[in-house]
Design goal:
Helix content: over 70%
Structural class: mainly alpha
Largest sheet: none
Low-confidence stretches: 189-193
Strand content: under 5%
Number of helices: 10
Number of strands: 0
Order of helices and strands: HHHHHHHHHH
Oligomer: single chain
Shape: extended
Distance between the termini: 64 Å
Radius of gyration: 23 Å
Mean pLDDT: 79
Length: about 200
């Protein structure tokens, strides 16, 4: 971001802690990769050896195994590169969508502003909220654009249209694919579920 955007105000702590958090994330990723190796399990078993309770040992080791299993893709170098490439592709596509929406509303936001908007939305999605991110998504978009002196009316319009572009199509596709799989919004058992249950009983 340009210096005048973060030298004072609420963004000053971001300048201070942002690089530190980024470095911590990279170190955490490296540790997760190391935990996915066989040597790591042997090391954990060695750490647990002095503990007298067998139940505690089993619980800790089972928790460790679950963590490693959940991070199996990250521990595999090729899959890790594939995941990173896919992530960059998704982020790049989202950035292009933001720039197109801004251009449609004739809002001249610099590239750093679009990146800041994308990062703010991504972080906000980690918070518990309404289904489909309805509400907080609009607030974060409007506040980010307001920070770049975008008129309120345009910011509200961009927030609504961008949310629609991001979530309405995939929701409709999900409903269509769910119906093809025999899923129901009513919560009742679908025909597919009934067939599977019948096979189990047989």
């Amino acid at each position: 971001l340009p210096p005048e955007r973060y030298e004072s105000g609420f963004m000053a702590p971001v300048k201070l802690w942002g690089p530190r958090v980024g470095l911590l994330a990279l170190i955490s990723l490296a540790l997760i990769v190391l935990l996915s190796t066989r040597q790591a399990r042997t090391f954990v078993q060695g750490l647990l050896r002095p503990i007298p309770s067998l139940n505690v040992k089993r619980y800790v080791l089972a928790t460790f195994d679950q963590l490693v299993e959940g991070m199996a893709a990250i521990g595999h170098p090729v899959r890790l590169l594939q995941a990173l490439a896919l992530t960059l592709g998704v982020w790049g596509g989202w950035l292009v969508a933001i720039l197109c929406i801004l251009a449609a509303f004739e809002v001249d936001l610099p590239l750093d502003g679009a990146l800041f908007m994308e990062s703010s939305l991504t972080l906000s999605m980690m918070l518990p909220q309404a289904p489909g991110f309805l509400g907080l998504f609009q607030v974060v978009t409007e506040q980010t654009l307001a920070w770049y002196d975008t008129p309120v009316a345009k910011a509200e319009g961009i927030a609504l249209i961008f949310w629609s572009v991001c979530f309405v199509p995939i929701t409709l596709i999900g409903l269509y694919e769910g119906s093809r799989q025999g899923l129901s919004l009513s919560g009742g058992q679908s025909e597919v579920y009934d067939e599977l249950a019948g096979d189990d009983e047989g």
